[in-house]
Design a protein that fits this description.
- The protein has five helices and 19 strands.
- By secondary structure, it is mainly beta.
- It has an eight-stranded antiparallel beta sheet.
- A hairpin with a 3-residue loop joins strand 9 and strand 10.
- The relative contact order is 0.09.
Length: about 375
């Protein structure tokens, strides 16, 4: 055992001198700068694959104590219970510290393990064998000596990044924000305006200036952290109804244009949230898709002909049924507890017709909304 400890120490010392290199360690030797074949989580849990030219030699967990790739991933030989038997496997070491975290993936098996005091392995399964409890209850039990992490254990996801970030915070018992998946609802006001192209194919719209519309905007959203970081992917689904009109003189005639749009809006945004405990400002930017499920447009033109007023009413596609563009905004989020929060946000968007046409109108808007997330 003393020999193995010395080998591990020399191994770490070598890394600090020469940088990260692929390696593997047996009970008696350390091989540095080797070419390791990455077989994915499942194969890596069974073999340490050393490539020499076209030949790949496989070592089992009974032959190799530890091996590591150039990118920093490390696999350690451990004995765990699988089914009815004890088996020695390679587990990926995700985190070292007072509590060391390991990950194992086998055939139809995916588990995390925590090693306390380098003695015992505590299994963290997604669900207990009788389905009576989940990994959240297990994490709460493990972190019972740190009240903050016991309280937020329900926010952890069953992924490498989320569990590793959670245990890393627990090791120091430092009260820091923990990224988690959120669902929620919003309601607010949307201020929109239709914009005519300068080179519009319909000469009526060359000088058009539609009135702006203010409508109630409401919907739901899903927000998931990216690799347990302060960046997240935001997907929204909103609805609003808007009415626009315009009247003007046009070559001795009076033109009245009106359009009515009922819109389903789907923003897909990249969000960054400042990691504070209670008050969390955020910014976002991304794509905005709009589907006009109601798209009614009318052009009425009245003019004098032969001492009589003539009236012509025509249907004309002013805006396409589908539009796509961009959106960006900023807001502030206030944490009510470890899971619930309220927020207020201002977002600006611009949408163009699909397919693009000079005859179609684009749309720009500003959204003022608040809501709650869970």
């Amino acid at each position: 055992m003393k020999i193995l400890s010395l080998i591990l120490f020399l191994n770490i010392f070598s890394f600090s001198l020469f940088g990260q290199r692929a390696y593997y360690i047996t009970e008696s030797t350390t091989q540095m700068g080797v070419n390791l074949e990455d077989g994915g989580d499942r194969t890596n849990s069974k073999f340490c694959q050393v490539k020499n030219g076209e030949i790949i030699k496989r070592y089992t967990p009974n032959e190799v104590v530890e091996y590591g790739f150039k990118d920093g991933r490390v696999y350690v030989s451990k004995q765990i219970q699988i089914g009815e038997s004890l088996q020695r496997v390679f587990m990926e070491r995700l985190l070292t510290g007072e509590n060391t975290l390991y990950y194992y993936k086998g055939k139809k098996i995916r588990r995390f393990y925590i090693e306390k005091d380098s003695v015992s392995l505590i299994e963290i399964s997604k669900k207990s064998s009788d389905n009576s409890s989940s990994f959240h209850e297990k994490l709460a039990e493990i972190t019972s000596d740190c009240e903050y992490y016991k309280e937020i254990s329900g926010n952890a996801g069953y992924t490498k990044y989320s569990i590793a970030k959670f245990i890393s915070g627990y090791n120091s018992c430092e009260k820091i924000p923990f990224p988690y998946t959120k669902y929620g609802f919003f309601v607010g006001l949307i201020h929109t305006r239709l914009i005519a192209s300068r080179n519009n194919s319909n000469e009526i719209f060359e000088s058009v200036n539609f009135n702006a519309d203010q409508s109630i905007y409401f919907g739901a959203f899903f927000d998931a952290p990216i690799k347990a970081s302060d960046f997240s992917t935001y997907l929204g689904l909103g609805f609003y109804h808007s009415i626009f009109s315009w009247k003007s003189d046009f070559f001795n005639s009076l033109v009245d244009v009106s359009t009515s749009l009922s819109t389903i809006e789907v923003p897909v945004l990249l969000r960054y949230t400042v990691p504070h405990i209670k008050i969390r400002p955020y910014v976002n930017i991304g794509l905005n898709y709009a589907l006009n499920i109601v798209n009614d447009n009318t052009i009425t033109q009245m003019y004098l002909a032969e001492d009589q007023v003539q009236k012509i009413t025509d249907k004309y596609n002013l805006a396409s049924d589908q539009q796509i563009g961009y959106a960006y905004g900023a807001g502030i989020q206030y944490q009510l507890d470890y899971k619930k929060s309220v927020f207020f946000e201002i977002r600006v968007n611009r949408e163009f017709s699909i397919p693009f046409s000079k005859g179609m109108l684009s749309r720009k808007g500003a959204e003022f909304m608040g809501g709650i997330s869970f």
